[in-house]
Amino acid sequence: MDTKNLVLRLGETELIVVPSIHYNHVFARRVNQICHASEGAPEAIAVELGPRAASEARLWLSELGGKNAGLPVMFGLMKRNRRIRASLRQKALQLQKDTGKDLSELSPEVLRRELGYSGYSLLCLSPTDSIIEAIRCGIELGLPSFGVDLDDMADGVYDAPVLIQNPDALEGLVDYIDRNADLADLHRDEEVDLRRETVMASRIKATLQRYKRVLFVCGMAHWLSISNMLTDQTVKPALTSGTPERIQGEFKRLVVHPLVALQYMDSFPKLAIAYEKTRISASNRGRRGGGVNELSPTAIFDKELKRSCRRYFHTRRYLQSNDERKQDIEKIALFQGYLGNLCVLSNRQVPHLSMIANAAKETMSADFTQILTKTFMDIPWVSPDDFQDCELLSPSGDEGHNTGATVLINGEGRQGGSKFFVRCQSTNAAHAPATISFDWGKARKLMERATSNFTSHTWSPWNRLITSLSLRAIEESTREKITNIHVQFEGSLLHGIDIKKTIHSFSRGKETYFVRDCSCAAPDQPDFVGGFPVVWIIRPGNIDGSDWRVLYEPCNYMERHIKDKAAFERVRAKKGSNMVAIIAYGQSYCDESTLSRPSGARCDRYAGITIFQPISWSNRQFAHWAEITGYRRAPFCETSLFGNDLYGGLAKQYREKHRIRIEDYHWTTTMILLAIPYAKEVLTVVAPDGYRLERVVHEKASQYGVQVKPVFHKKFAADDLARLERCHLVPAITYDPECIYTEDIETYIGEKQTDNLDLIPAAVRDFGYLT
Amino acid sequence: MSDNTAKIGEKTVKLSQPYRAPLSKCIGRDTEMRKVLAAWMGATSGLPLSPLLIGEPGTGKNRIIYECAQMCGKELYIFQGHEDVTSSDLECAVRFSDDADRKMDYILTSVATGAMRGAVVFIDEIAKIRPRALAPLASLLDERRYIDSSLLGERIYAHPGFRFVAATNTTDLESRLLPDFIRSRMRPVISVGYPEHREIEQIIRARFRTMSNNGNSLLSQFWSLWKEKNGDQSPTPRDAIYIFGYALNLADFATIESQRPYSLEAGTHSGIIEAGHLEQAFAAFHDLPPSPGWRK
Ligand SMILES: Nc1ncnc2c1ncn2[C@@H]1O[C@H](COP(=O)(O)OP(=O)(O)OP(=O)(O)O)[C@@H](O)[C@H]1O
Ligand SMILES: [Mg+2]
C-alpha cells in the first residue's frame, strides 16, 4: 500500500482517519505506521469504543505490555449488555406476556432468536485489529487515547456481510476507502448506528478542540456517515467528560478459547503471530515500517497448506490407509482449485480459516480436514492455566459444533457459569460459524475438570439395583428361550411333547415327534455381555411433561483405562465423546423432599428406561466393556455443557444411521426401537403384564437379526419397580474410580451409598479386574 | 435444422427442452451459491467440479441451483431421479414418430441435451436412482466428458460449457447409498441447512405481498403456532410457503363463497389473510405426517 493517509482538515486541526475492516492486519499496520512516523504523528488517539471500554483495554494492555514482548492471543474483555432495540420493545413485552416469564428468565437462545439480544459484548485484544493497535501505540508513545463511541448500545441487525474488496491486494488506503466505503455503508443498521455515529462525531469534535492532530480509528461502515457529521455545523462538540471513572467489576478479564477467538482474528491465527513478529514498537520510533515488513498472507497460507500436506501424506498411516484417504492425493488439486475459486468469488486474496475448513470438509476426507485445521490452529495460544486470575470464555457446544453460544468458566475454582451469547463487536462477519475441531491440550483437561464440577452422577445404589434387576430380566428371557429348545423324540419324553413343532412336522409329511428339553436350563451366569441392552417399560401411559433423557459415561472418564488408545481416539472422533449408558423417558420428580434437596441434586421419575450395560461399574470396567464389545453395543454422542443439544444429536444419529425416527411412534415403541440396533441376539423388554409389541418392533428386530423377548412385571417385586422409577442425579466428591458422595446426599435420599452391593453377582462385580 | 434437433453422427435426434424457472426474489443463500459457483468455475486442473447438494426436503436445494444457473446465464436442464430410471433415460430414448416419413424419433434426454449444449444439467433426487442406472455419468463427469449411447451407437461429447450438479435429500442418501464411482465424482458436498427465522420471514413477505398491513402480527402468529406444534424444529421455506399459501387460498375462498360457479384460477381473487385463516392452515398442515426431526 502506498503511504498516503486519509486526512480530514477541519479548520486548524487535522483528523487522520483509518476506516478499517476489523481484525485485518493491513489496517493495524497502517495505524502503527501513522503513530510511528517521524513527522506528522498524532497528538491523541480516538477509537470506536466506549470511553469505559477504551480505558479498560488500555489499562490491561499496559499491564500486559510489561510482561511480554508481543501481545499473546487471545485475551478479551467482557461486559453485560442492557439495551434492547427501541423498535423491539413491543415485541419484548409481548414475549413476556406470551411466555409468562420475565426477560431475565428466558433462555439465551430465545432472546437471541426473538429479539436479537445477546447478553454480553466482548472486546478481544486481537493484535491485528486496528483499534487495539491504536491503543497499544498510545501506550507506547504516551499519547492520550479516547473511546468516542457509546459504551451501552443495542445489538445491530446486519444482513449477510457485503463483499468488500480485499485490502491486501490494494495500492493505496485513500483509493481503497473511496472505492469501498459506500459499499460498507450499506451494511449499517440505521436504528442503532446512526445514534452511535452522531455521538462519535461530536466527541471527535471535542477532542479536536484540545489536540491539533488526532488519529481516529473506526469501522469502515461508519466512516461516510461520521465524515458527513464532522463537516456538519449542527453537530456540536460534546462536553468533555475526562476519563471515565472505573466501575469495579464492570468488565471481566478473560482468556478466550481459540474457537471463539477465531471470530475476532484475521484470516487465520498464524497471521496474528506473524504480525507480532514484524510489529514495530515504541522503542523504534522514527523508523518507518514500510515495505520490508509487509506481511504476505498468501505466502503464510501456502506454507501452512504445505505443512499440512506433509503431515498428512508423508506418514506411514497414510500409506497403509484405506481408499478414502488414498483418493485424497487426487483430490488435493480439486480442493485447492475450489478454495481458490471461493476466494475469487468472495473478493479475498486468502481464504479465512472457516472457508478452508469447510472447503476441505466438502471435498476431502475427514482425516485430512482434521490435520489441516489442526495445522492452521497450531499457534501458541494463551493458556488459562497461566492466567489464573482471568476467567475463561469457551464455546458451549462441543468442539466442532460451534453454535455461537458461549459459557464463562470462572477463575476461582473454575466453576461453570451460565450459557449466553456474546455480541461480535464488528460487522465483518468473515468467519461464518465453521465446524472446526480443536484440541486445546493442557487447557482441555482444565475445562473437563471445570465441567465435571457441575456434572451430576446417578446414585450408586440405584445403579446396582437397575443392574441386578436387568440381569434377572436377561435370565428370565434367556430361560424362556432355552425352554423352547426342542429335540427329536428318541425314547425319553424329557419335559413333554412339543405339540406345535410336532404338528408342524406332521403337516409336512414327516412323522417326527418333538419333545421339549430344559436340561440345559438357564446357566448360573446369565450372559451379561450379550444380554444388554435391557428395556424397562415401567408405566406405559402417556405422561404429560415427559421427555427423553440421556445419561452417559464420558470418554474422558474411560480414557485412562483404555488399552488400544489409538482405536479409542478414532471412535471418539468419529462417534462422539460420550458412551450412552441410559436412555430414559420421564419427567422431574417433585415431592416434599424437593425442599430439602442439596444443591446440585435432582430427581427424575422415569416411565421407561433402556440400559445399555451394567452401570454398577467403575470407569475401568466401562472402558473394558467398551473395548471388548468393539464400541458397538451402545450409541455414542456429543454433548454440550448446558442444554440438551445431546438429545438432538442422538436423534439425528438414530435417524441417519438406523433410520429410526423418534417422533413416529408411541414412546414405548420408540424406546424398544432405540435398543434394537445395539442388541446382540435377544433384546429383553420388561413390560407390564400383557404388553404387546407393535409390528414395527418385529420388523426392525428382524432387520437387525434380533429377537425381542418380553418379560412381564409379575416376575419382579412391585417395590423394586417403584424404586427403579426414581433416579437421583447428584453431585459426587469424586467419580474416579467410582463415585463417592457426601453424607447429606445419603440423608436426603435416605439410603447409604454402600447399599445394594450384595445384589451384584461376582462375575459382574469383578468384570475387567481379573484380566 | 431447427433448434429442436441436432445431428449426432449420421442420426438426427430431437432435443429436450430446458427449464425456465419463474423466480421470485431469492433470499439469502449467498454462501451456498458461492460454493456452487466456485465449483463450476473450473480449477487449475481445467476440470470444473460437480457439486452435490444435500439437505432436508424443502430447504431450497432446487432454488439455489436455479439461481446459480441464472447467474451464469446458462440454460438449465433438469432430470428428475426416481426408482425406475434406467441408464438409457440418461442418454437417449426412442419413440414412434409423429412424422409420417419416419418410423422412429430419437430423443436426447435432458442430461445428454444439456451436456451437448453446454448448459447446466441438474439431476434432482439423485439418490433415488439405482446405482446401475447411473453408469453413463461415470464418463460424463470425469475428464472424458462424454456419454456413449448404446441406442444411438454414438458418442455424445459434452460442450466445454457443460456444468453438472445434483441434489438429494438427507434421508434418501442414508437409505440408498450412492455408488462410490458417483460419490467420488461429486465434490464438493454442500449441505443446505434451514434458513434463519429472519430469512423465512423475508421469503414470506416477498411471496405474499397482500399481507402488508397485518404482516407483522401474522408472522408473529405464525411463529407461535409453529412453536406450539413443532417445538424448536425450524420450518423449511416450503413449510412456511405452504402454510401461508393455504391460508391465502382460504382467504380467497371466503371472498367467492357466495358465487357460482367457483372460479379456481389464480389472480382472480383478492382475499386478505386473517389470523383465523392461518390457524386453519396450520391445522391442515399438521394432519400430514410429521416431517423429520425429533418431536414430542
Ligand atoms: N432462499 C429462498 N428464497 C426464496 N424462496 C425460497 C428460498 N429457498 C426456498 N424457497 C422456496 O421454497 C420452496 C421449496 O424449495 P425447493 O423446492 O428448492 O426445496 P428442495 O430442497 O429442492 O426440496 P426437495 O428436497 O423436496 O426437492 C420453493 O417454493 C422455493 O422457491
Ligand atoms: Mg428439490
Provide structural commentary:
The complex is a heterodimer of chains A (771) and B (296). In chain A, the strands form 4 sheets. In chain A, strands 12, 15, 16, 17, 18, 19, 20, 21 and 22 form a 9-stranded mixed sheet that branches. A 6-stranded mixed β-barrel of chain A has the order 4-5-11-10-9-8. In chain A, helix 2 crosses helix 5, helix 7 crosses helix 8 and helix 13 crosses helix 14. Chain A has 771 residues and is an alpha/beta fold. Chain A contains 28 helices and 22 strands. Chain A is 40% helix and 16% strand. Chain B has 10 helices and 11 strands. Chain B has a 5-stranded parallel sheet with strand order 4-7-10-3-11. In chain B, a hairpin with a 4-residue loop joins strand 8 and strand 9. The interface between A and B is large, with 37 and 34 residues. The complex binds adenosine-5'-triphosphate and magnesium ion. Adenosine-5'-triphosphate (ATP) binds next to helix 2 and helix 9 of chain B.
Helix/sheet category of chain A: alpha/beta
Strand fraction band of chain B?
15-25%
Largest interface: A-B, 37 and 34 residues
**Helix fraction bin of chain B:** 25-40%
Q: Overall pLDDT of chain B, averaged? A: 84
Biggest β-sheet strands, sense, barrel of chain B: 5 strands, parallel
Major β-sheet of chain A, in short?
A: 9 strands, mixed
Rg of chain A, alpha carbons: 32 Å
**Number of β-strand runs of chain A:** 22
SS-derived structural category of chain B: alpha/beta
